[in-house]
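Run: sequence + adenosine-5'-triphosphate -> complex structure.
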Amino acid sequence: MTVFVLGSINLDAVARVDDLPRPGETVAGLSLELFLGGKGANQAVAAARMGVATRLMGAVGGDDSGAGLKAKLAGYGVQVGDVVELPGVPTGQAHVWVANSAENMIVVTAGANAMVTPQQVAATTIEGQRVLLCQLETPATAIETLFRAGSAKGALRILNAAPALPQGAALFPLTDILIVNQTELATYAKLDREPVKLEEVSVAARKLMSRPDQTIIVTLGAAGAAVVRRDEAFLVEGKKVKAVDTVGAGDCFCGALAATLAAGMDLAEAVETANAAAALSVQKAGAAPSMPNRREVEAFLE
Ligand code: ATP
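>> structure
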């Protein structure tokens, strides 16, 4: 029962400001916090916290922040032997400014994340990996190589097609379970507004299906998640909680789903558990620090 994540690792620098600066303006920051981030890292932490052996493949720069992020990941129980440190390349960073009004501006520089290559993937062994989990913050060519190898080995291939990118759609045929939120679904299905009701969600999701045996999961925020297959579509209701910070909710959902499927749970139960894990995560600040462990999720579900 193992999860293999291929994905991004970022240093998130979050500065609070009274008001966002206008072009050319300098404003004083009220505070600065540095976090482990990146969808790959967050999802790997969420999976590992569920008690399932989790490997992360990716790249950081040969700088202090790269080594620090690897150590942090290892502290969460993620196996980082497949994370390369690339000299002369910066670690990926997200610069986030949050105003008092809660409006924000974010700049993400991919740095080393953009340098993950098909060769790096081909050089590792994925023998015995039950679930492969990717997002779109690392190059699609590397994901394609991993999914093709996974198909030959009978692994379950899960793609969280976020952020929505045109090159993402080319990976859908290689995917067994595709996970998108409502905004991403609207983008990929070329809709002018986000689908809300289960009926609209399932019609839109089926537009993304390229094989009859695929499953599409659409996360619906507090409402939970819709599971759409060729012949059925059902809603797994979200858990009612008081949300404090929804950053990383989607990542928590994906990581927890991968872990529970790797542990042999059936899909409906796994989605129920992923909803519970994500609902717990929105009650705490931050992404990685808010991911619950298996005991917390089990206690919440009792
Ligand atoms: P984010 O970008 O904030 O990480 P997302 O847009 O990728 O999230 P969402 O659909 O908003 O994804 O949320 C993912 C999952 O998190 C949902 O399917 C649900 O299980 C859980 N969730 C999100 N918001 C809430 C909430 N307010 N209350 C309970 N559960 C929530």
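>> summary
The chain has nine helices and 13 strands. The pocket of adenosine-5'-triphosphate is lined by residues 181, 219-222, 224-225, 238-239, 241, 243, 246-251, 253, 275, 278-279, 282 (CB under 6 Å).
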